[in-house]
């Protein structure tokens, strides 16, 4: 082979390699979004990790109701939120709540997650309180999970893992707080 042919083959190999690398970089930085409904996602979480509580139906959070925003999400307004749902026990004294939030395109997800973590009241129920709160996301969906370890020592983490499995991908940064 001549030097010219070898140089052309090496150049072609480098171009193919660079093309393959650039595709991998692009796909690994893509911010995937969950395409299903929030109600379907809540059902999938419970299919993966059944909870032995008498749960009420998944509740659509009224984003125009300031009391609902504070109660379910710990937020004073719905800026950046497209829709939200929550699941809690129908009655009884169990400190347990999961809320799912779909954010609007361009919303600052990290700030919303931190505001939910900082604002949610783990003692919002009469006589009981949650002792662990986790807030995470997958693409445009934020999940807030809050439970009392008296229900199960691993319930909050189990539900976090069920959320990750239900969305079928890596979650964003996991924020945690133990109740005071």
Describe this structure in words.
Residues 1-22 form the signal peptide. Keywords: Signal. With 180 residues, the chain is an alpha+beta fold. It has 2 domains: 1-30; 32-178, no CATH class. It contains 5 helices and 6 strands. The protein has helices at 3-28, 38-48, 66-73, 109-119, 155-167, and strands spanning 59-60, 81-87, 96-103, 132-138, 141-147, 175-178. Helix 2 crosses helix 5 (155-167). The longest helix is centred in the N-terminal third of the chain and has 26 residues, at 3-28. The radius of gyration is 22 Å and the shape is globular. The termini are far apart. Residues 16-30 have low confidence and may be disordered.
Keywords:
5 helices; 6 strands; globular; signal
């Amino acid at each position: 082979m001549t030097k010219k042919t070898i140089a052309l083959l090496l150049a072609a190999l480098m171009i193919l390699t660079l093309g393959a690398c650039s595709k991998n970089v692009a796909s690994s930085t893509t911010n995937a979004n969950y395409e299903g409904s929030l109600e379907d996602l809540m059902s999938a979480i419970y299919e993966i990790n059944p909870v032995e509580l008498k749960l009420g139906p998944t509740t659509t959070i009224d984003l125009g109701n300031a009391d609902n925003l504070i109660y379910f999400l710990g937020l004073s307004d719905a800026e950046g939120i497209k829709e939200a749902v929550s699941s809690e026990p129908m009655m009884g004294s169990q400190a347990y709540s999961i809320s799912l939030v779909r954010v609007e395109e361009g919303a600052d997800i990290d700030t919303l997650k931190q505001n939910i973590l900082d604002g949610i009241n783990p003692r919002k129920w009469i006589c009981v309180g949650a002792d662990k709160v986790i807030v995470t996301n997958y693409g445009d969906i934020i999940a807030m999970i809050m439970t009392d370890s008296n229900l199960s020592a691993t319930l909050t983490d189990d539900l976090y893992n069920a959320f990750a499995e239900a969305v079928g991908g890596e979650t964003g940064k996991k924020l945690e707080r133990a109740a005071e």
